[in-house]
Amino acid sequence: MFFIYFYELNLVRNVFILYDMIQRIQTMYLSLVTILSLLLVKGEFMKFTDDTGSVITITFNSMMKGNGNSDTELIQSLPAISVLIILLLAVPFITVFLFKKRKIQLALSKIIVAAVVLVLTCCYYAFYVISTYNAQLLPVLKTVLPLFILVFSFLAYRGIKKDDDLVKSYDRLR
User: Count of CB atoms within 10 A of residue 174's CB?
Assistant: First the structure.
C-alpha cells in the first residue's frame, strides 16, 4: 500500500515539475528556437538566380548551382553551417530540460546566441561568394529564419536572466 501511495505522489510531483517548466516563457522561446532550427535542416534556405538563368541554392551542407534541370554542380561545401545548425537544434532542446539549473541555462543560452550570430556570419559569407556570380536573392521564407532564431534566443536569455535575478533577490531577503 505504501509503495502505491509513493508512486502516486511521485507522479503528482513530476506533473507539477512539468507544469513549472512549461509555464516559464523562456521554455516557449527555446522550443521555438528548436523548431525553427529544425526547419533549416531540410531544403534550401537561400536561393539566388544569376544573369544566365542558373539557380544557386544554399542548403544544410552545401552551395549548389543548377540550371533548372537535374544536373547541378557543387560550388562549395559548407560544413560550418551544418555544425552550427545541429548545435542550434541540440542546445536549446537540452536547455529546456535544465530549468532547475539557471546558471547552466544562462551559459547555454549565450552559446545559442553566439551560434546564431555565427550562422548569420556564414550567410553573409555566402552572399559574398554568390556576388562573384552576379546573382540576385530570390525570396525564400527560410532566409529570415536565422533572424527569428536570434530574437527568440535573446528573449529566452533575458527570461532566464530575470528568473535568476528574482531568485537572487529572494535569497537576499532571507
Answer: 4
Residues 163/26, Cβ–Cβ less than 8 Å: yes
Average pLDDT over residues 119-141: 82
Residue 147 C-alpha cell reads as 533572424
Fold that domain 39-173 belongs to in CATH: Butyryl-CoA Dehydrogenase, subunit A; domain 3 (1.20.140)
Give domain limits for the chain: 39-173
- The pLDDT tens digits of the residues spanning 117-128 come to 998 888 888 788
Measured CA to CA, the distance from residue 131 to residue 5 in angstroms comes to 68
C-alpha grid cell for residue 107?
551559459
Question: In the beta sheet, which residues pair with residue 76?
Answer: 63
> Would the pTM of this model clear 0.70, i.e. be above it?
yes
Could you report the per-residue pLDDT of 149-170, keeping only the tens digit for each?
A: 999 999 999 998 888 888 888 7
One-letter identity of residue 48: F
What are the DSSP E strand ranges found in 21-138?
Answer: 44-49, 55-59, 62-66, 72-77, 136-138
List Cβ neighbours of 60 (8 Å cut-off, separation of 6 or more): 40, 41, 42, 45, 81, 82, 85
